[in-house]
């Protein structure tokens, strides 16, 4: 056996050079090749459609089929599965099906008439994120210092979840050497402290495939407030015992952990007993508790030791690691073979693994031992040897390498072709390379037999060879060190027995990119100054470099202070944070270069800068000049800007003027100049400290005169009189004049058709008056600047107006709309524009209060004025006096003044709230009473309808007691309050009222003493302050004198517009005998109540206005008759007792009718039992003793309800608020239901019954028993 293996190896060495792997062009016949497939372990998302990839190429294009769990998968029979066109990729629609139905092992087959390729076994599994099992976590109570493990135990998901611990605020719990999370997710405490007490230890599991996070129920830990546990040496919590073992696969990650408990907290260290730890692949995690080794190899097999140590001792644990290996390729998977008829070749499947894997071969998916015999093929373990192959031997061979830890499956085809050579590299391809770098020129080709490649330079007939060139097996030629002389045209020739193929390529050798090295490797700059890094580069002229700047190998700060130029970096206003390493990188498409400089920033004391020097004028033209200068020393503070000034020695010798400013980074300025000026310039520099001194003046530069460039600004035309127009403007400065002989050409014309321009030249002035103009007429105006060298540009036309005159028009349709007692709206029509004779400024409303409409206010002729600017046609008049008559007119006004008034109009304001009573006095009359006297309000603001008196006791702490309120008649001016306690202090508030409401109150405080006198704390006060009284003129005598009868007297009311103040009511019994007149004063009100009138009598009543000498100037007489039963007559039909009596009578009649109805149904015609038997209608059920259901016995006539009777929908009659109702006795929710659904309640502890309601649509007559039960509630 050993000899056979040696022979096979020797044969491979002999035949290996005869064939190499080639990429077959797709236009040539070839077996299928799998180009893309899903991974072996394919975990799918159950929420998305399943896509299983299988792509292949071949000529002809292959067809595809699938197996599932080893059997043919009939795609056409499953409507949810589709295969993409020209592809083997499957798409499974799981919208109507569970994804788990498609779990299993899938394998794709791609075949054409040259062979069959198969994919890996694709294991489809659905990702799972199961819910956490429900559990109740009891609080964990521990003593301080003990160890503790909080279990996580997340649900087993697919793939397994990522576990982490957080609190209620979604903040990660802090971990340390003392507290850390293990690899399985549990939280370990080497020892607990009191600060570990909390109720929100929450373990979270994040399922990455479904992007879901689930949480465990919070765990509560309470650390007892007691003496802590004793200090102790470490012991391991995990792994248990002194040793353990584990297995890891080659190429995977090895993670070992040791978590120890102890007090104080132990430290963990790691070592390898049987060797050294691989430093480049080793890391320590979780505070040294986890040892992690990546890319495990066979050398990592061995024994590892973890040691936990504190001041009381140490403990060791050894872990024996065994490294196993799934199969892996030694020299890569087998490569495709393209052979010409009669050629030899070898397929090699060289792999390894621990344990050693088993290698099996299949051809076109069929075990090779079951395939047709081929004399040209020989299988020797991990190789297949082909000798003298013939056309038709093409096939796909599968090599399967497997052991208990996995498998490798590779497809490799043998394609027997006869093809002349073809060069695959694009024709005339240009290769660019940097000088002194390797140059690789490709000549990819295909042919069967394998073509031979030869290279030629330009038109040379000799082949390239020698030490200057390296020839690769794939046809590429390499020039190890390219030089400029290597540039040029190259030709490769591919030859086999069937033909020849040529191709040309070009090589361009470029000069390298090099940054000019700076002498300074370090720059030191003072804080606040600027620094410049230069990055000048030499490069090939055909390459275009791009510059990139880095600070400390990162991007530059995104600040305006960093200015990147074409070949430099400037940092202005340097700060301490700018210190660091600055790198310039120059990149081209072929190479790059870089240079680095370190920047140091030091502190500096700033001073003002030195003045600029070396002022020079260049690029001189008629209107501009270039000024350059050299900046002075900045003195530790960057120059912010330069100020340029000029002196005009022609017009203002000795006066310097600011001309312009430029940034501090510039040293030149392009200055725009004016004609006819003798310029001298100087420059100032400004930094954070201040301005420098002025530079030395520059040489004088004279500009030639010219016509003006501009015309005067601020042109206006305004008349000062009604017949003139004054034209004014802002004159030009000397700098603007541009030359000698400056004057102004003033032009004007009336704005109307056919008007001609009038012109006047004006010198040494900035205004001109045009006389004899019509009043307020529009004019077009122009003012042009002119000097000895010509006129300025055509001026703009400005609109002006001649002088205004007083308006002659008046507003029409003037009227007033009263809004409320203090506000009115005035409306008018606008005055025509031609009657205004000027600019409309607005309207003025003159208004004055003629008189108040209560009693005898004198005339008040003082006028108020309100102006409404603009073209208004209405305005509001606020602050009016209630219950008053007003006169008003409206005037229009312009800039000259006011026009004539409109016709005077008038309006009246309605009643308003009155002012406070004028006075309130307190007088003592008895030991337990007070008498209050008061005077009516000065401002009635309407008819006084009465007074309201409120009073409250006041204790020694100035706290108010309960308030009493008393309504008083309008003609009363005093009142006596009885039953007041002596030695008590009282507060009184008195207010008057009109029909509009009550006014402000006047207050007074007084105490009742046992001596019978009154102690007044203060006189009186009122709020708000009274307005000044307006005097009114008398108008007319009494009007609207009326009376109304009330229970306590007759109320006499009137309106009076006379000047007299003394108004009273006198009355006497209407008889033919002597008249005994009695007086009732009005006291400022306009109504008086006459009390004590006798019923059945008629009275003569007069309302009298009395003059100065008790002379009756005006009176109004009326007759008042008091009926015998004036206030006692009532309508009996509206009285409650009468309505109740009628209801009782109706109720008795109803009871009698119901009793008769019952007696008729229970009459002695036949027994109840016979009547029960006589009825077979199922609607009528007899009453049973146990359920108290009732039945109605009647013939068809008796069964009908009483005419006009009604029954509530629930079949009961209920009286609201009855003390004896069924509701009160039934106790609501305590009722029960029978088997037939009827309700059972309790009535006085005995069984009672209620019939079920038939519903609102029942036409059945009410039950007599229900009627009786309902009557019980009324009896």
Automatic annotation (TrEMBL):
Ig-like domain mapped to chain residues: 32-119, 130-220, 234-322, 327-415, 421-508, 512-602
Tell me which SUPFAM superfamilies the record gives: Fibronectin type III (SSF49265), Immunoglobulin (SSF48726)
Q: Which GO terms describe its biological process?
A: axon guidance; brain development
Where is the secretion signal located? 1-21
Biased composition range(s): Polar residues:
1266-1275
Q: Which GO terms describe its molecular function?
A: cell-cell adhesion mediator activity
Q: Which Gene3D superfamilies match?
A: Immunoglobulins
Q: What are the boundaries of the region Disordered?
A: 898-917, 1194-1275
Q: Where are the transmembrane segments?
A: 1137-1158
Q: Which family does it belong to?
A: Belongs to the immunoglobulin superfamily. L1/neurofascin/NgCAM family.
| Name of the protein in question | Neuronal cell adhesion molecule
Q: Which organism is it from?
A: Kryptolebias marmoratus
């Amino acid at each position: 056996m050993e000899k056979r293996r040696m022979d096979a190896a020797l044969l491979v060495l002999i035949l290996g050079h005869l064939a190499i792997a080639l990429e077959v062009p797709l236009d040539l016949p070839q077996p299928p090749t799998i180009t893309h497939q899903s991974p072996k372990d394919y975990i799918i998302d159950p929420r998305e459609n399943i896509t299983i990839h299988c792509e292949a190429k071949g000529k002809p294009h292959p067809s595809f089929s699938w197996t599932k769990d080893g059997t043919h998968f009939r795609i056409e029979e499953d409507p949810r599965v589709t295969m993409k066109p020209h592809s083997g990729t499957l798409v499974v629609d799981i919208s109507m099906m569970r994804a788990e139905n498609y779990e299993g092992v899938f394998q794709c087959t791609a075949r054409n008439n040259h062979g069959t390729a198969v994919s890996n076994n694709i294991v489809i599994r659905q990702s799972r994120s199961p819910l956490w099992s429900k559990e109740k976590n009891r609080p964990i109570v521990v003593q301080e210092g003990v160890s503790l493990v909080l279990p996580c135990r997340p649900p087993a998901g697919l793939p397994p979840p990522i576990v982490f611990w957080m609190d209620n605020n979604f903040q990660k719990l802090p971990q340390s050497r003392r507290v850390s999370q293990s690899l399985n997710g549990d939280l370990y405490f080497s020892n607990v402290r009191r600060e570990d007490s909390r109720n929100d230890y929450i373990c979270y599991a994040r399922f990455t495939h479904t992007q879901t996070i689930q949480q465990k129920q919070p765990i509560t830990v309470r650390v007892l407030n007691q003496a802590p546990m004793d200090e102790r040496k470490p012991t391991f919590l995990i792994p248990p015992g002194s040793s353990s073992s584990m297995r890891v696969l080659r190429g995977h990650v090895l993670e070992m952990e040791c978590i120890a408990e102890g007090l104080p907290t132990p430290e963990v260290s790691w070592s390898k007993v049987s060797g050294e730890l691989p430093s480049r692949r080793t890391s320590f995690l979780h505070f040294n508790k986890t040892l992690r080794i990546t890319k495990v190899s066979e050398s990592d097999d061995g024994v590892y030791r973890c040691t936990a140590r504190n001041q009381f001792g140490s403990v060791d644990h050894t872990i024996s690691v065994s490294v196993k290996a799934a199969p892996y390729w030694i020299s890569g998977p087998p490569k495709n073979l393209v052979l010409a008829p009669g050629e030899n070749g070898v397929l090699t499947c060289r792999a390894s693994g621990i344990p050693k894997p088993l290698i099996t071969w299949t051809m076109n998916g069929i075990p090779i031992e079951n395939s047709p015999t081929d004399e040209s093929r020989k299988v020797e373990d991990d190789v297949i040897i082909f000798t003298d192959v013939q056309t038709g031997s093409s096939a796909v061979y599968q090599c399967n390498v497997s052991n208990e830890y996995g498998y490798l499956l590779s497809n490799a085809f043998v394609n027997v072709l006869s093809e002349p050579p073809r060069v695959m590299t694009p024709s005339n391809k240009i290769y660019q390379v940097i000088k002194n770098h390797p140059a690789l020129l490709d000549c990819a080709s295909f042919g069967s037999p394998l073509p031979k490649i030869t290279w030629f330079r330009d038109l040379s007939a000799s082949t390239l060879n020698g030490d200057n060139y390296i020839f690769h097996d794939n046809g590429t030629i390499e020039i190890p060190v390219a030089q400029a002389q290597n540039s040029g045209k190259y030709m490769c020739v591919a030859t086999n027995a069937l033909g020849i193929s040529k191709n040309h390529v070009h090589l361009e050798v470029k000069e390298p990119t090099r940054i000019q090295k700076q002498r300074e490797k370090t720059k030191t700059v003072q804080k606040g100054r600027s620094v410049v890094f230069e990055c000048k580069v030499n490069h090939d002229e055909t390459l275009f470099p791009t510059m990139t700047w880095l600070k400390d190998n990162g991007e530059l700060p995104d600040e305006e202070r960093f200015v990147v130029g074409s070949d430099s970096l400037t940092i202005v206003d340097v700060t301490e944070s700018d210190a660091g390493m600055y790198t310039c990188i120059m990149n081209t498409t072929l190479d790059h270069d870089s240079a680095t400089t370190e920047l140091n920033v030091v502190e500096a004391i700033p001073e003002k800068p030195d003045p600029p020097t070396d002022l020079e004028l260049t690029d001189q033209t008629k209107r501009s000049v270039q000024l350059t200068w050299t900046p002075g020393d900045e003195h530790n503070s960057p120059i912010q800007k330069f100020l340029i000034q000029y002196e005009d020695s022609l017009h203002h010798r000795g006066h310097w003027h600011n001309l312009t400013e430029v940034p501090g980074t510039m040293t030149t300025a392009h200055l725009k100049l004016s004609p006819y000026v003798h310029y001298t310039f100087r420059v100032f520099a400004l930094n954070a400290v201040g301005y420098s001194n002025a530079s030395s003046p520059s040489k004088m530069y004279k500009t030639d005169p010219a016509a003006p460039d501009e015309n005067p600004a601020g042109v206006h035309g305004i008349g000062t009189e009604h017949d003139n127009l004054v034209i004014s403007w802002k004159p030009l400065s000397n700098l603007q004049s541009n030359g000698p002989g400056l004057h102004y050409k003033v032009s004007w014309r009336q704005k109307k058709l056919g008007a001609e321009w009038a012109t006047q030249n004006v010198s040494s002035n900035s205004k001109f008056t045009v006389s004899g103009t019509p009043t307020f007429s529009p004019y077009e105006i122009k003012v042009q600047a002119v000097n000895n060298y010509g006129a300025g540009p055509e001026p703009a036309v400005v609109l002006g107006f001649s002088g205004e005159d007083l308006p002659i028009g008046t507003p029409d349709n003037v009227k007033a709309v009263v809004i409320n007692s203090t506000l009115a709206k005035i409306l008018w029509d606008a005055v025509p524009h031609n009657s205004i004779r000027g600019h409309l400024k607005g309207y003025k409303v003159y208004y004055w209060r003629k008189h108040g409409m209560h009693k005898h206010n004198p005339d008040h002729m003082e006028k108020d004025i309100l102006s409404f600017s603009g073209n208004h046609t209405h305005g509001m008049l606020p602050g009016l006096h209630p219950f008053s008559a007003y006169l008003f007119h409206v005037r229009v006004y312009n800039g000259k003044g006011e026009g004539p008034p409109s016709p005077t109009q008038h309006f009246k304001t309605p009643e308003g709230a009155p002012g406070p009573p004028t006075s309130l006095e307190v007088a003592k009359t008895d030991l337990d009473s007070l008498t209050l006297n008061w005077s009516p309000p000065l401002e009635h603001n309407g008819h006084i309808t009465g007074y309201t008196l409120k009073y409250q006791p006041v204790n020694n702490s100035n706290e108010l007691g309960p308030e009493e309120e008393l309504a008083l008649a309008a003609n009363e001016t005093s009142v006596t309050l009885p039953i007041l306690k002596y030695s008590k202090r009282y507060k009184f508030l008195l207010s008057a009222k009109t029909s509009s409401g009550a006014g402000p109150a006047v207050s007074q405080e007084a105490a009742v003493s046992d001596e019978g006198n009154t102690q007044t704390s203060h006189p009186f006060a009122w709020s708000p302050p009274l307005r000044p009284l307006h005097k009114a003129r008398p108008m007319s005598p009494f009007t609207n004198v009326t009376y109304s009868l009330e229970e306590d007297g007759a109320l006499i009311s009137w309106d009076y517009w006379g000047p007299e103040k003394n108004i009273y009511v006198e009355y006497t019994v209407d008889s033919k005998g002597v008249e005994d007149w009695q007086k009732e004063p009005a006291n400022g009100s306009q109504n008086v109540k006459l009390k004590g009138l006798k019923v059945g009598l008629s009275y003569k009543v007069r309302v009298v206005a009395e003059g100065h000498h008790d002379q009756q100037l005006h009176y109004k007489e009326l007759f008042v008759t008091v009926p015998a039963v004036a206030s006692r007559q009532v309508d009996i039909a509206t009285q409650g007792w009468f309505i109740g009596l009628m209801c009782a009578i109706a109720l008795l009649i109803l009871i009698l009718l119901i009793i008769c109805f019952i007696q008729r149904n229970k009459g002695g015609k036949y027994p109840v039992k016979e009547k029960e038997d006589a009825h077979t209608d199922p609607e009528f059920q007899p009453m049973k003793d146990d359920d108290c259901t009732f039945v109605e016995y009647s013939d068809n006539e008796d069964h009908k309800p009483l005419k006009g009777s009604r029954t509530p929908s629930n079949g009961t009659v209920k009286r609201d608020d009855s003390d004896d109702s069924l509701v009160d006795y039934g106790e609501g929710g305590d009722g029960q239901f029978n088997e037939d659904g009827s309700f059972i309640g309790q009535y006085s502890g005995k069984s009672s019954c209620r019939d079920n309601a038939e519903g609102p649509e029942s036409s059945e007559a009410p039950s007599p028993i229900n009627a009786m039960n309902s009557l019980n509630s009324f009896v």
